[in-house]
Hints:
The protein has helices spanning 50-65, 99-111; strands at 2-5, 11-15, 21-31, 37-47, 79-85, 88-94. The protein is α+β, with helices and mostly antiparallel strands. The protein has a 6-stranded antiparallel sheet with strand order 4-3-2-1-5-6, covered by helices on one side. Strand 3 and strand 4 form a beta hairpin. Helix 1 (50-65) packs antiparallel against helix 2. It is globular and about 45 Å long. The model is unreliable at 68-75 (pLDDT under 50).
Amino acid sequence: MFQYADGNGNSFILESGEVPSLHVETVAVLTGAGGGTSVAQAPQRRELTYNVYMELVAAFQVAIDNKLQHSELMKKGTGMIIRVEDGLQRRYMLCENCAERRDLEALLWNCMR
């Protein structure tokens, strides 16, 4: 399982399971007439073909493999990958303008269309 949180408050979860799937929770801040704010979440789930699932896994792996180049650049708006393997959780940070982050986010959003 991979989980990715982008700098805009969106959370993507890639699950292998019997039928691979991608879940996304988008967060929108709503401002009411009185000036108050609230948060609305719109969860979505898409079943994936094996090929699309493997393409996403490869994109996550490339981003993880290149994370050492970005570790010293961590700041607000940084994307984060959470990988769970054998019950252990590992976190990887991607800087805002890195190519791996752009590619991963584009692929994740394309899969949700």
